[in-house]
Recover the amino acids of this structure.
């Protein structure tokens, strides 16, 4: 009877319930289904991890980019500081030369005053000696 | 409205400036500077001024100087003939702006991150390096104490002049801020700090007083008391110049001149036609205790004189006219009003001396020197110092010009001015100290002999014995020459005789002895005038005292034939004497008579040598009897 049922495409399982599918196939199908679900779960998991990874990489890239810009900026700044220093040096040089000119003027004046003092001293001595 | 196009050129004109008389325009053209007269068809005066493109020029109306700056990173000072008076050192950046202070004593130079303040002679007072970018234009405030600059970075920079320093005797005054002044007494190291409610505009120190002009008031301090100044409000509030003299000071405001006493009282306000006090050149105004002299601004041949009367009144003395165009004037400071003298320098740099008061002979202009670059009177005695070409010259007794012209050279001290470099300027002459400003701005002190000023003192008080003793002690020929001139001027014969003897002027000594031998005072006076070469004076003295014969005879001695004959005819006496001497003179030189006047009388008058000699003898005896 089971065979005739099988011919008709009907089967009984262990629990004596009537089935349209062959019990083995059904079993396999079920198994497949289970496995598929597992697979889907795993894939989802993987995707999640991959997403996380991508996000991390992205932020890292951003970080790197930022640092890079910073570095470039710093390097440019460094270059301009050298220039700025040069300009400052030039300015100070100009101020120094101005001051040194003034100093020279004062030196000449001081010298002339010293000479005058000497002349007067001589005159006083002369007068004291020859009075 | 466009009136006319005066210049058309292929190169861009970066800058232009009006000339002082508004008849000429100065403009740039590449590396050239061009002065173009507005009269049509006039040839412009042009010269190559810079090695790079000229970006800015300025022309000052009061001192007539031109400044220019350009892409060759230098600024230069020029006179109106295109002669270079100063060339700056190489700067780091092109000069983008340049501007005169209204008074013409300073100018400002702007460049990239640079603001410079310079003296009119070109040397730099100070340098600032503000972060402004290039300063494209500079403008001064009308009182000449502040500048505003248009900066390349979009800012406007304001600057105020401080650290102006003045010295007088033992006092040193420094403007430390916009509204504060510090005074130091160098001899005892005492400090004073003076504060003012307004901006300080002018400061002047001298004659025991410090005068400070702020934007609305005038403060007068004496050196004895720094705590309680005399303060008065200004009439106009815009002072262009401040000149001090012994008893008063002159304030030059925008449209008026006022003389104030040190008590703050207004004494008087001189005025004349066409005066523009705003553009006064400091070299063309001079004051002394009793006189003010100002050169006219439109007519440069004219010098106005104002005498201060005793009753605080002002007398307009007749102006002095000099054909050469006056560029500098100076009044002496010492002595009585009768000794007031004016020196003037004309366009050819010749220096002339004249007395302000006295007779016509004293008032005539006498040439004292040529090629005078700068001059200064002494503050205490009437000595004059000047830079002449490459010499520093001190005239110990300038009046000698009116006493004995041949002594001028002997009363002068010459000194080589090469230690002062090119174009030095005498800025002060106090006591025996001369202050000379070199072209690089340094102030060189130089001392002159102290004895002439002592001699001046003795002469002023007629202490001739002391004067003689001083000269004998010093044994200096210059001093002796000064004494000779002074004593001759004062008509002190004994002193003059010894002084002339000391400088080996035997002819003068002999003449003085001849004068002394004459008992008549008037004759002595006339002969003294002759000694100084003042023939006209001598003649007028003689004529005034009725000594006709002597004046005729004096003219005969001087070979002044025409005048002698004229006098003889006029007074109807001694015509034969004159003709006789003329004949003798012609015979000695073996010359024919060519003088028409004498030819006329030749055969009309009988000449008898004996009679004439007798007549002369009679005249001398008559003189003695009358005297």
């Amino acid at each position: 009877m089971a065979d005739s049922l099988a011919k008709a495409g009907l089967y009984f399982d262990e629990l004596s319930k009537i089935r349209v599918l062959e019990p083995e196939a059904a079993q396999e199908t079920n198994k497949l289904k289970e496995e598929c679900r597992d697979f889907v779960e795993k894939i989802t998991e993987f995707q999640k991890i991959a997403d996380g990874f991508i996000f991390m990489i992205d932020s890292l890239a951003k970080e790197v980019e930022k640092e890079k810009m910073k570095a470039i900026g710093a390097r440019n700044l460094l270059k301009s500081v050298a220039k700025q220093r040069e300009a400052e040096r030039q300015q100070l040089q100009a101020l120094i030369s101005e001051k040194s000119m003034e100093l020279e003027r004062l030196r000449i004046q001081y010298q002339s005053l010293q000479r005058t003092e000497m002349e007067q001293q001589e005159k006083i001595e002369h007068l004291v000696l020859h009075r | 409205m466009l009136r006319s196009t005066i210049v058309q050129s292929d190169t861009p004109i970066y800058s232009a400036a009006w000339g002082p008389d508004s008849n000429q325009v100065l403009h740039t053209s590449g590396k050239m500077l061009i002065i173009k007269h507005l009269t049509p068809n006039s040839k412009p005066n042009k010269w190559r001024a810079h090695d790079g493109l000229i970006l800015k020029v300025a022309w000052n109306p009061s001192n007539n100087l031109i400044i220019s700056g350009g892409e060759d990173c230098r600024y230069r000072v020029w006179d109106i003939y295109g002669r270079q008076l100063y060339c700056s050192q190489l700067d780091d950046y092109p000069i983008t702006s340049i501007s005169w202070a209204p008074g013409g004593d300073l100018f400002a130079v702007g460049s990239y991150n640079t603001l410079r303040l310079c003296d009119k002679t070109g040397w730099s007072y100070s340098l600032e390096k503000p972060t402004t970018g290039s300063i494209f234009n500079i403008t001064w405030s009308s009182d000449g104490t502040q500048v505003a600059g248009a900066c390349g970075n979009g800012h406007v920079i304001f600057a105020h002049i401080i650290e102006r320093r003045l010295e007088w005797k033992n006092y040193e005054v420094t403007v430390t801020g916009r509204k504060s002044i510090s005074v130091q007494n160098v001899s005892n190291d005492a400090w004073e700090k003076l504060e003012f409610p307004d901006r300080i505009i002018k400061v002047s120190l001298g004659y025991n007083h410090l005068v400070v002009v702020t934007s609305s008031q005038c403060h007068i301090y004496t050196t004895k008391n720094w705590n309680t100044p005399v303060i008065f409000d200004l009439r106009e509030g815009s002072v262009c110049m401040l000149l001090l003299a012994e008893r008063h000071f002159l304030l030059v405001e925008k449209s008026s001149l006022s003389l104030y006493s040190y008590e703050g009282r207004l004494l008087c306000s001189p005025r004349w036609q066409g005066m523009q006090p705003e553009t006064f050149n400091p070299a063309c105004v001079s004051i002394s205790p009793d006189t003010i002299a100002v050169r006219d601004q439109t007519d440069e041949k004219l010098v106005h004189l104002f005498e201060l009367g005793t009753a605080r009144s002002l007398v307009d003395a007749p102006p002095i006219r000099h054909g050469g165009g006056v560029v500098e004037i100076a009044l002496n400071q010492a002595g009585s009003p009768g000794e007031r003298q004016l020196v003037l320098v004309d366009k050819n740099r010749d220096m002339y001396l004249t007395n302000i008061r006295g007779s016509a002979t004293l008032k005539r202009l006498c040439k004292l020197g040529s090629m005078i670059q700068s001059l200064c009177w002494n503050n205490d005695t009437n000595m004059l110092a000047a830079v002449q070409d490459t010499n520093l010259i001190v005239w110990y007794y300038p009046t000698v010009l009116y006493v004995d012209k041949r002594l001028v050279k002997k009363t002068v001290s010459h000194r080589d001015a090469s230690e002062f470099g090119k174009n030095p300027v005498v800025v002060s002459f106090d006591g025996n100290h001369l202050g000379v400003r070199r072209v690089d701005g340094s102030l060189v002190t130089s001392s002159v002999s102290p004895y002439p000023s002592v001699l001046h003192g003795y002469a002023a008080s007629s202490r001739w014995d002391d004067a003689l003793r001083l000269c004998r002690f010093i044994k200096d020929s210059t001093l002796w020459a000064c004494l000779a001139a002074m004593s001759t001027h004062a008509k002190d014969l004994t002193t003059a005789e010894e002084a002339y003897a000391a400088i080996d002027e035997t002819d003068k000594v002999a003449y003085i002895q001849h004068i002394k031998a004459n008992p008549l005072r008037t004759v002595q006076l006339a002969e003294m005038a002759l000694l100084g070469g003042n023939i006209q004076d001598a003649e007028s003295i003689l004529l005034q005292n009725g000594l006709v014969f002597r004046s005729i005879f004096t003219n005969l001695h001087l070979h002044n034939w025409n005048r002698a004959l004229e006098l003889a005819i006029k007074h109807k006496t001694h015509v034969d004497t004159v003709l006789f001497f003329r004949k003798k003179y012609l015979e000695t030189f073996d010359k024919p008579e060519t003088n028409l006047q004498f030819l006329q009388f030749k055969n009309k008058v009988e000449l008898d040598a004996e009679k004439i000699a007798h007549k002369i003898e009679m005249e001398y005896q008559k003189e003695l009897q009358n005297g």
Summary: The first helix of chain B runs from residue 360 to 363.
